[in-house]
Amino acid sequence: MTDTDAGPVRSLADARERDAADPLRDYRDHFSVPEGERYMDGNSLGLAPDAALATLDRVVDEWKKLAIRGWEAADPHWFGYGEHLGDLLAPLVDARESEVVVANSTTVNIHTLIGTFLDALPGTPAGPDPTADPPAVLVNELDFPTDHYAIRAQFRQRGIDPDDRLVAVASRDGRTIDEADIEAALREREDIGIVFMPSVLYRSGQLLDIDRVTAAAHEHGALAGFDCAHSVGVVDHDLGSAGAGDAGDDAEGADFAVWCSYKYLNAGPGATAGLYVHERHHGTTPALAGWWGNDKSTQFELRRTYEGADTAGAWQIGTVPMLSSAPIEGAAELVREAGIDAVREKSLALTNSLIDLVADRLGDDFSVGTPREHARRGGHVAIEHPEGYRVSEALRDRGVVVDFRPPNVVRVCPAPLYTRFEDVYRVVETIEAIVDADAHREYDPRGGGVT
């Protein structure tokens, strides 16, 4: 295992020594690393691994040779491919295989899962008591915007004013969310029926205490759901009931979660998303029911009445997009082979080094908005600077690929399967050279476009 307690990287020689001792060092050879670049944007889009390209090529070949017969004759067959991929991902979130499926996009999964569980609560048209006051959903003000867009839309579709029922926990510092404030919000609002939080805040990289949030929600009588887009594949999650015994434990485990597959899972741009639903909710009718979520044994009887699968597979909507899903198979196998615990260990060691180097090498205009405590840190680091956008542009022109998030955050992500300690050292060295020469001032302030 990578030693997260090893001393800081003070020199290029230190970095190379750490790389030589890294048990995951050979995994870099499995990725298409852009020549001449330091790629530090894996929290937005992971690089292409050979295993993902191989499974995509296999499915393309099956399409050419088998055509429609691939739904049953391919290996694994396409008909159950979303469930097959869910089986591969389940250990990464410590869930039962039946609790995970690959389906839809992240935003669509938020729509269907929030909608499903709103419909199970009093105060909604389909709920057990439509005459009760509508339930509220607890979020936070630092969420990625799509989460709020989807939840607001689900409220509107039920005739509920989202301004009244979407409750946002405020940040104390503009960077992080204190779990104590989530607990306080639950005490203040009896009407909260769902708590929906990110596992990792997209801007600062703070890792929330999922167990604590889940316990607080359940004690309140609310459901606990999570957007794990910035953590699956780099954080060793414990979402489900895999470790709760044969019968599971209804008091433990998050109720539902969503994530994308193109960040730390490295399955490519637009790769199909994933979702998790605790087994205690299996059999619930999804809010966005579709034929691909029907029980597989009767799906092609094409009945007029939906008969949902008794697994997370029920939350599939349309036909599995094979070419957007196939890379997940190889990519997930690579993460499983490396071991999620080892991936997490190296991630922490890399971000430790990055944070230390920022403190040691960069001036007072720079700060780190990511918590230093391991239990509160995801896989990327938020480097803050008043001219963060211009710094990020200068870095890109010098072969360092990062991204910018308003108002002042340069996000730097040393993805552990293909990033070296030397890369981290060189990135900070490049930032230092840029600001020492005032080179970032040659760039215009932020305009539009993808950052």
TrEMBL record:
GO terms for cellular component: cytoplasm. InterPro entries: Kynureninase, PyrdxlP-dep_Trfase, PyrdxlP-dep_Trfase_major, PyrdxlP-dep_Trfase_small. Pathway: Amino-acid degradation; L-kynurenine degradation; L-alanine and anthranilate from L-kynurenine: step 1/1; Cofactor biosynthesis; NAD(+) biosynthesis; quinolinate from L-kynurenine: step 2/3. It is an enzyme of class 3 (hydrolase). Its EC number is 3.7.1.3. GO terms for molecular function: kynureninase activity; pyridoxal phosphate binding. SUPFAM superfamilies: PLP-dependent transferases. Catalyzes the cleavage of L-kynurenine (L-Kyn) and L-3-hydroxykynurenine (L-3OHKyn) into anthranilic acid (AA) and 3-hydroxyanthranilic acid (3-OHAA), respectively. Belongs to the kynureninase family. Homodimer. This is Kynureninase. It comes from Halobaculum gomorrense.
